[in-house]
Amino acid sequence: MSTVVELRQLTKSYGSQVTAVDKVSFKIEQNKIYGLLGRNGAGKTTIMHMITAQLFATSGVLKVFGEEPYENSKVLERICFIKESQKYPEVYRVVDVLDQAGCFFPNWDREYADSLIKDFQLPLKRRVKKLSRGMLSAVGIVVGLASRAPLTIFDEPYLGLDAVARGLFYDRLLEDYAEHPRTVILSTHLIDEVSRILEHILVIDKGQLIMNEDAESLRGRAFTVIGSSAKVEAFTQQRNVIDRVPMGGMLSATIMGELSKSDHRTAEAEGLELVPISLQQLIVYLTQNKADRKEVLSHE
Hints:
Blueprint: E1 3-14, E2 18-29, E3 33-37, H1 44-51, E4 59-64, H2 73-76, E5 79-82, H3 94-104, H4 110-119, H5 133-147, E6 151-155, H6 163-179, E7 183-187, H7 191-194, E8 200-205, E9 208-214, H8 215-218, E10 222-228, H9 229-236, E11 240-247, E12 250-256, H10 261-269, E13 273-276, H11 279-287, H12 293-296
Helix pairs in contact: 4-5
């Protein structure tokens, strides 16, 4: 599988005081859906801006389609970056956005864009500046999907959209991705909503990469154990505990690692409740510094 994006020790600093991205290294492969996840201010958007040549790196190596992206039209015409609160010229109507998109994206599919406009019930003749926040997000989604760009990046693409419209976005993305494979990067805080469509997870925290794993390998890798304090402590001994919450004589402990059938039988015999935690919960634990990351991610 060919590499679409490669970062090696990529760093972005602002003066001597602020390092937004700190020696980050990872690869993004062709025809996969990635989740670029983390808290606000973690450095995600800075990384996306460097990938799309909107920011220069301070140091390190960045290759997109095997080349440096800066002032490289051959690379940039293969990228579609839809970001939060996308800006358009003051006079543009929705139809003008669609007309112009065909000039920027070689794989632009206007017929598909028109079908998406109907799906999201967007008013073609209305000026973009008059749209609600949700409608503006939907315009970005239409452009991102219909661009069919080999590298398509969505940065919080659905602010203001209701649950029905977000579900429509996920469904259309999966349907079109199946017919027209490309590399997709989704950066979002709605992790549980998108977890079913993500194939690979990248987590950034405080400018550093703390997780780089296939999504499937993460599912069922962390559990919360609930029961009497003594029994939970005994069960979690020698395990990777990433969170503890005492509740009187009870204890809720979250552990990282797969559990065997024998572990499940032991927990049942001791009257302990085992609850798998979601991807979103796992990332919250990791980015709240409730555990030593080197231990939590030691399998890497």
